[in-house]
Amino acid sequence: MTEQHHDERTSIREAMDRLLAGQATASNGSLTVVALAAEAGVHRMALMKRHADLKNEFYERVRNETQQVPESEKQLRATVAKLKKTISNQKTEIEELRQLVTHLTLASAVLTQGRSVSPEPVPIHDNVIAFRPPTIS
Q: Coiled coil: which residue ranges (predicted)?
């Protein structure tokens, strides 16, 4: 491990302690990776790529020490809930469409069956006016 790498890790751990104690000096004090990077004086991507274990440690400490859920986790949970609701709505819509297809298929069969000319004439009652059978083109 290089000296610079070791110094970054030390400054990140010190920044974690300050943020969790509510004594931020170089950031807005929020319990996010962005604030941690700003507080430690390292680039956010360096924290995300080279020090991913420290990022995970930070979120674990946020969960354990403050009894809070990290903001990124809140956003992911909200997204998951929204997607589950969308899936539920789509399943309901698919079931409705399947029922509609069944009904339309039956209606089509009835209409198609009604077009065929039966060999026996249907008895006509006194109060019924017969329509001409449809012509098939």
A: 73-100
Cβ contact 13:7 at 8 Å: no
The overall pTM is greater than 0.70: no
Asked whether residue 16 is assigned to any structural domain, the reply reads yes
Residue 134 belongs to a domain: no
Range(s) of the domain holding residue 32:
3-68
Structure tokens at 132: 């001409």
Residue 132 buriedness (CB in 10 A; 0-12 / 13-18 / 19+): exposed
Task: Evaluate whether 64 touches 23 at the Cβ level (below 8 Å).
Answer: no
Interval 29-63: pLDDT, tens = 888 889 999 999 999 998 889 999 999 999 888 88
Token pair of 23 as six digits: 């004594």
Same domain, 43 and 91: no
